[in-house]
What we know:
The protein has about 140 residues and is mostly helical. About 65% of the residues lie in helices and about 5% in strands. Helix 1 crosses helix 5.
Amino acid sequence: MRRDVCRTARGMNLNVTFPQLLSLQDVALLVLRLVVAIVFGASGYFHLTDPVGRSKSIEMSPAFTVGLGAAEALASAGLVTGVLIQPAALGLILLGLGAIQKKAMTWKTGFWGEKAGGWHYDLMLLAMNGVILTTAGGGLVIRL
């Protein structure tokens, strides 16, 4: 199989097996944004529709749970549209760090979740939001 060396707009050389796929970077980033938005949007929706029940499961107050749900829902809207996408991704990174702290230090679930849902899932979402933050979500965004 032939491997091509492609030059990016910034002059970096990439060792690429499938150079044809490079033209799909914006679409791939849009799909990534939509997946992250679905996860956090659903979580935010459930926090907002049942704050008392959810507050018990996360061991926080109902008021905090409503704030958390609003933050997740608004950040998800930012990821979908691309409006304020970097602050949205940064906010979700901070929420993810809080979730990891709660699971690792307070609940002691373990990375894979020996006692309950582990924090490996949160770490993946943290990395996904890091990609969104550093790429500004790609080119398929609403420009204001």
